[in-house]
Every structure is written in structure tokens, then in C-alpha cells.
User: What shape does this take?
Amino acid sequence: MILTDREILVALQTHQIEIDPPPLPDSYSSTAVDLTLSDVGFEWKSVTGLLIRPGTQGYNYHDLKKHYHQKIEITGYTLKSKTFLLAYTKETIDLPIRSRLAARVEGKSSIARLGVGIHITAPTIHAGFRGTIQLEMFNFGPNDIILDAGLKICQLIFEQTSGTPERGYSGIFQDQTIR
Amino acid sequence: MRLPCSDIVDGPGPSEVSVTVSNATGEKVEVIVHESFVKDGKLEVYRIGSQGDSVLVELPRESTRGNWRIWVNNVLA
Assistant: This one.
């Protein structure tokens, strides 16, 4: 079940959802709230011969980031055609586990019609999430796009879960022996 | 519940840190989390269940190797 704007507001007032800084009144639509682009992002350096093998013992994202990430400031930043950018929302989101809410980050048509996607298959904001939301942006369009911090870049759609996840559960079946 | 963690360094995003915890077999598991999940060198995790000397915990975020839940040594937990 997707929360409407009124239900999102109630959830914010009752701290079932925390968004910092709080969304402005013009950030809401009927069933979503818009988030904005932060002023920091990262580009991957293109390195000839570099092979990345995630999921294996010894794979370390921090080492990879140290050598192949390039930090950029998103103020008049040009997202070139057919390029990838790791960006973040300005807002920090907190979905307390007992709120029984999860969310999905989705693009906005105003940005999508220019050919820019804001996530690559990882839109789920799990119950219990706390932090800024990483955006895996790609410019599929033929033209370069200039991005500025504060741009309404994505929307968050909240969904009610039908129960409390194991990690937030405190009933009689908590912490069972796993067979 | 909190697990000791090491290699605490800045993460890629604002207010993020990258930390490493050890699983029950001693392998290092790297996870990038909001800084509020780490206090006094310990990572906030969630106890799911147990089996013998091992405890299954859920990490605050998906690890960089892709798993959310890991088995850890009961002594650490």
C-alpha cells in the first residue's frame, strides 16, 4: 500500500519517517515526496585493463574508491552524454524499523525526459534505512546535462510493510535458533 | 546490538563511513553505512537468530560483497 501525501505528512509528524532537512510544501505530489541533489558526487576513472570482481573474498570497495573514484562538486556540473555519476540526495532519510514502512526511490519525469536515469536497478530503501540516498545516475540522452545542487532529482514513494521485519521484531518468536 | 569494527574510514557519500567487521570464519566484511550506525568503534547490527556458537545478524546496509546478513562469533555479539 502506497502512502499518499497526507499520510506522508502524518508519518513525518509522528516521526515514523524522518527527512532532514524537511521537505518544503511544494515537494509533495499525491503519492510521493521529492528529494534534492546534494553538492557532492563521484565519477569513476576509466582505467584500461582494470578488472573488478565484486562479491569475492578480497574485493574491497574502499580500495577501489581510493584509486578510481574522483570526487566532484555538483554546482554547474556537466553530466556528459553516456556517462555515469554517483550522486546523493541532500536529505537524510530515517525509516525506523518499527514504522513498518519501506520506500522506493524513483526518477522524475522532468529529468527522465532528458534521458537521465537516477538509479540503476537499486531503488529499494529498506525498512530501518538511515542515511542519504545514493543515486546511480546515467545520462542516456544525446546531450550534455548541467546539474546543480538543490535540483529536484528524485521522488520517494513510501510503502507500508505487512509486518515488522525480523530485525525489529520483539515478540515471542524473536531470536530463534536457526536450523 | 553492536559489533566491533575496524578500518573505519570516510565512505563515498556525505555522512557515510566504510567499516569492516569479521564474520564467524574470520573473513572481513566491508559495509558502507551512515555514520550514526558507528559509535565507539562498534557497528549497530540486528540479531536475527543463533546456531551453536554463531549468531546471525543483519547489517544496517548491504555489504560491498552483497550480503545483508552474516554469521558472527557469539563472543563478539
